[in-house]
Amino acid sequence: MSENVRPWGCYEVLQSATHHQVKCVWISPGKRLSYQRHQFRAEHWLIISGHAEVTLDDVTINLGPGESIDIPIMAKHRISAPSDEVVFVEVQTGTSFDEDDIERFEDDYGRAN
Questions:
Q1: What angle do CA 6, 11, 12 make, to 5 degrees?
Q2: Total number of domains constituting the chain
Q3: 3-state DSSP call for residue 99?
């Protein structure tokens, strides 16, 4: 297992295999991930704690503990922690889980693809 620090919080890879990867993700209060999409993977997010605001193809959805959402391949998506820390489990399925498979449309931290 490895922990990866990002400007919005951090994540830990719990399991990695040929056709799936599982992460635990922590988002700091008031932070959000970039608005992005992936060409080679779909994701399933299960909220563990906190109240998340998810944007999926320009539609905003509020999720709390125990709720989940599916992110299809090529869907634009973002998750944020508007008030309290959000912890969620991300299950990725597909053919590539490389961090290079990120096409960013908006990013609060000045990162490009």
A1: 140
A2: 1
A3: coil
What type of residue sits at position 56? Answer: L
pTM above 0.70, yes or no: yes
Name the residue range of residue 33's domain.
Answer: 2-99
Average pLDDT of 66-70?
Answer: 98
* Residue 2, pLDDT above cutoff 70: no
Report yes or no on 29 lying in a domain.
Answer: yes
pLDDT average, residue stretch 54-81:
98
Asked whether residue 15 is assigned to any structural domain, the reply reads: yes
Any idea how long the chain is? Answer: 113
- The SS3 of residue 109 is coil
Question: Tell me, what CATH number does 6's domain have?
Answer: 2.60.120.10
65 belongs to a structural domain? yes
Q: Is the pLDDT of residue 16 over 60?
A: yes
Query: What's the Cα-to-Cα distance from 14 to each of 35, 40, 85, rounded to whole Å?
Result: 24, 20, 20
In-domain check, residue 104: no
Rounded to 5°, angle at Cα 67 from 45 and 82 = 80
pLDDT at 1: 47
